[in-house]
């Protein structure tokens, strides 16, 4: 007895149709699936920690991936990859940015400082030494971003750049605890070492403004 499918074809007929379809698909001249476009490549020169680095990159490469995967500067961490945790903070032309949110090709010729460029194990930057003294970390994953952010933040204070909590925009901002916490709010510490981080930064800054510590 010949079994038939719901379409009315016998099993043998169904197999014959399938074989014929496969033969047509493999025949010369048959339409193939379109190949994916090759990535667009570009050459970019960055000045990283005082050294010029020329890279040939996919134009979609973030600055974070260029630093970590191409230059092997793994001190800069990949956390959320959405610009929400601050673990990837680096200093570009004197300003702190989230390296995961910017493309490497956007920074042709820019001076970039990572945690490796601030100090070395033999000669720590004052902020690095203060973080050690005050236990401003636990797991340490966020620490490079915290320190780079703190360095740029103190420079902002010196330059008179106001923040969201600056009370008098006509006066030079003072490093109160409220100012410090607001300016560092983009750097998340999942271990909760915030009080020690505040103490470390305050020490390097020469102390917090009197009467403003909470």
Give descriptors for this structure.
single chain, 214 residues, alpha+beta, Ubiquitin-like (UB roll), DNA polymerase, domain 1, 2 domains, 5-stranded mixed β-sheet, 13% strand
Structure description:
With 214 residues, the protein is of the alpha+beta class. It folds into two domains: 40-118, Beta-grasp domain (Ubiquitin-like (UB roll), Roll); 119-214, DNA polymerase, domain 1 (Orthogonal Bundle), CATH 1.10.150.120. Helices cover 34% and strands 13% of the residues. It contains seven helices and five strands; from the N terminus they run αββαβββααααα. It has helices at 11-26, 63-70, 115-118, 126-133, 143-159, 177-183, 194-205; strands spanning 41-48, 51-58, 89-92, 95-98, 111-113. A five-stranded mixed β-sheet has the order 2-1-5-3-4, sandwiched between helices. Strand 1 and strand 2 form a beta hairpin. Helix 4 (126-133) crosses helix 7 (194-205). The longest helix is centred in the last third of the chain and has 17 residues, at 143-159. The termini are far apart.
């Amino acid at each position: 007895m010949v079994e038939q499918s719901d379409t009315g074809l016998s099993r043998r007929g169904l197999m014959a149709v399938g074989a014929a379809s496969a033969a047509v698909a493999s025949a010369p001249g048959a339409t193939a699936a379109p190949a994916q476009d090759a990535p667009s490549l570009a050459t970019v020169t960055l000045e990283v920690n005082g050294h010029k680095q020329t890279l040939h990159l996919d134009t979609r490469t973030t600055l974070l991936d260029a630093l970590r995967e191409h230059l092997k500067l793994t001190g800069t961490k990949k956390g959320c990859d959405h610009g929400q945790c601050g673990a990837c903070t680096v200093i570009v032309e004197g300003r702190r940015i989230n390296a995961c949110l910017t493309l490497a090709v956007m920074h042709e010729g820019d001076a970039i400082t990572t945690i490796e460029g601030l100090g070395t194990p033999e000669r720590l930057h004052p902020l690095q030494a203060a973080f050690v003294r005050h236990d401003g970390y636990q797991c340490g994953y966020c620490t490079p971003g915290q320190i780079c952010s703190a360095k740029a933040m103190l420079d902002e204070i010196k330059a008179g750049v106001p923040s969201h909590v600056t009370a008098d925009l006509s006066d030079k901002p003072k490093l109160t605890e409220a100012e410090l916490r607001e300016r560092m709010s983009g750097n998340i510490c999942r271990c909760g070492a915030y009080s020690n981080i505040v103490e470390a930064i305050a020490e390097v800054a020469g102390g917090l403004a009197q009467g403003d510590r909470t």
